[in-house]
Amino acid sequence: MEITAFSVEEIKDPTNIIEGKRYEFLLDIEIDEEDELYSEAGIEVRVIIAQQDEEIRLLNYFLIDKANNEILDFALEEEEEAMILHFVSEELNTEENAGE
Length: 100
What we know:
alpha+beta
């Protein structure tokens, strides 16, 4: 699995009930043709991230077949989740450093 493109948006909490920040990442991923998740149109991962102080956590994610925008009933492997968490952590840290 390889991340080929992404977008990120901060999710606002108008009630201020949630502590910290929430982000939604949309990741385009490239998957090997031999993988059961493979789709010719591509796969997108919608990831919800929580950040409080220095801690960044993966709250939830959805795998979406870009051919029909259908949510797939699959879970990522632990290594893939760790790879995504590392990627989004790097992006959030880069974004914070750029703002300083």
